[in-house]
Write a structure and sequence with these properties.
Largest sheet: 3 strands, parallel
Strand order of the largest sheet: 1-2-3
Mean pLDDT: 95
Helix content: 40-55%
Radius of gyration: 32 Å
Number of strands: 12
Shape: elongated
Strand content: 5-15%
Low-confidence stretches: none
Distance between the termini: 70 Å
RNA sequence: GGCCCCGUCGUCUAGCGGUCAGGACGCCGGCCUUUCAAGCCGGAGGUCGCGGGUUCGAAUCCCGUCGGGGCUACCA
């Protein structure tokens, strides 16, 4: 059997972390089995669906590299087909029209609550003669649920889950305005799209029972279900948009890399022994539903950040330059060809120390900032009278001895100068760092010098000695 | 309220009848060292929610209990 999975978000907000993980699992499962990964936009709720949200979902998936194998299906476009299926159920006696008003339904619920009985539709119109229908009222179409027996879902993650059929009420399939509801649409679309495995959040576990009955009423085979646990916020509750949960775009802006995000999301609720760093290739090779946990997980920014730092160091220097330049420019530091070259030369040391793209950019500022440099507090302290005096000596030695401008030669020379001055190497190195970078912390000194180039180094030393910086 | 799911260090997890309950993030200390990272080494941190069973032996099986979550719409 060909494996076909699908990610089916409703476009009522950005793509959040939970949706991203669901998409990832579906994508991985399809890839692992050489099947297809499809995307369906569940936009049947016209009031809440927006084009902006649809774009955000496309952008988010694209950034994460979870590209569907076929053009996305927009559920609303298929409403005729959905209604047609409902009509068939009606014709076959598997569904019926219901003329209950909202008020009647509300009263029904109130009564049930008062009597401490389960709150659900009581089947008023199930056997009532349609001839008794009140005039001028548009009916909804409800499914005729079995009233005895049980519905079993052999969930690939949750295991065998059973519910008594009398817990299921005759839910609405088609609204009074003729539009299909989610319960009908998912089933018809999953069937028509040939979906073999429905992998989704376990907030849909209860829906699976209802949908199983729709599949049965339509005479269709049930797909395999896999309900994965939800991701909770720090407060332990379901992640929701109005809950301060962020869209994937926000993480991109914070400087996270998609490969880090994929690795992190994969480990949230799925495990493969003690493996933590899992490349996408290995993820595809290893992913299965058995590895999914059943407990909800909490999102941990620190761990995502640690993974991100790892993947940052793995990236090519040139790619990182491209990623960091827009950030530097946004920070008010235009990057010209010279700046680009310096960034490329210095990226090795820079990326080793960064955790995200934003602190990478922050740490790279000194390569592209205009002289004289602004000093941070630590650098200012390093450039006191003593420090500046040592810098003057060092500058003179650099010009006088004219060592080759390579890391090795510069280091050997600087160490010799420190010895000549009778100070520990650190006493000389730190003021140099402050002069060249304006900071007390930076990548290796000689890497910085080489990246900056001799002229710039001398100019920055001059600035520092003269107290300009 | 009803139904369904879940419960191992702070967090993510490994574990599937016999392990000193392992790893990762975070935290603490050390080494390295021109700063900071990285790397390496070491440490603190879990009576496996709780209570009963079953068993020679339970985090692992059963029952109960408590706690958390989800669903209970003419939303998806």
């Amino acid at each position: 059997m060909t494996v076909i999975t699908r990610f089916a978000p409703s476009p009522t907000g950005f793509l959040h972390i939970g949706g991203a993980r669901t998409a990832l699992f579906n994508w991985l499962y399809a890839r692992h089995h050489g099947g297809k990964f499809l995307l369906r936009i569940e936009d049947t709720d016209r009031a809440r669906s927006t084009d902006a949200a649809i774009d955000a979902i496309f952008d988010g998936l694209d950034w994460l590299g979870l590209v569907p194998d076929e053009p996305p299906v927009h559920q609303y476009d298929r409403r005729e087909r959905h209604a047609e299926c409902a009509m068939r159920m009606l014709a076959e006696g598997r569904a019926y029209r219901c003329w209950c008003s909202q008020e009647e339904l509300e009263a029904m619920r109130e009564r049930a609550r008062a009597e401490k009985r389960p709150v659900r539709y009581d089947g008023t119109w199930r056997d009532r003669d349609p001839a008794e229908a009140p005039p001028g009222v548009d009916p909804v179409i409800r499914i005729k649920m079995p009233r005895s027996g049980e519905t079993v879902i052999d969930d690939r993650v949750q295991g065998r889950v059973v519910v008594q059929n009398d817990e299921l009420d005759d839910m609405v399939l088609v609204r009074a305005d003729g539009s299909p509801t989610y319960m009908l649409s998912v089933v018809v679309d999953d069937h028509d799209m040939g979906v073999s495995h429905v992998i989704r959040g376990d907030d849909h576990l209860n829906n699976a029972f209802r949908q199983a009955q729709v599949f049965a009423a339509l005479g269709w085979e049930l797909p395999a279900f896999a309900h994965i646990p939800l991701i909770h916020g720090p407060d332990g509750a379901k992640l929701s948009k109005r809950h301060g949960a962020l869209g994937v775009a926000a993480y991109r802006e914070m400087g996270f890399l998609p490969e880090a995000m994929r690795n992190y999301l994969l480990r949230l609720g799925w495990g493969h022994g003690d493996d933590e760093i899992i490349s996408t290739e290995d993820a595809v090779r290893w992913f299965d539903l058995d590895g999914c946990g059943r407990a909800a997980a909490r999102f941990d920014l620190d761990k995502l950040t640690a993974l991100n730092a790892h993947y940052l160091r793995l990236r090519d220097d040139d790619e990182l330059v491209d990623l960091v330049v827009p950030r530097l420019e946004a920070m008010g530091h235009p990057v010209d060809a010279t700046g680009q070259a310096r960034l490329r030369a210095g990226m090795g040391g820079l990326k080793q120390r960064a955790r995200r793209l934003d602190d990478l950019a922050e740490a790279a500022v000194f390569y592209v900032a205009e002289r004289p440099l602004a000093l941070d507090a630590k650098a200012a302290k390093l450039l006191d009278d003593d420090g500046r005096a040592r810098l003057a000596d060092y500058r003179a030695a650099l010009v006088g001895d004219a060592p080759a401008f390579t890391q090795e030669a510069l280091e050997a020379h600087a160490r010799a100068v420190a010895e000549r001055l009778g100070v520990g190497f650190g006493k000389l190195a730190q003021p140099i760092r402050a002069a060249l970078t304006g900071r007390g912390v930076s990548p290796g000194l000689f890497e910085v010098m080489v990246a900056l180039g001799r002229d710039e180094v001398l100019a920055r030393l001059d600035d520092a000695v003269a107290g300009r910086a």
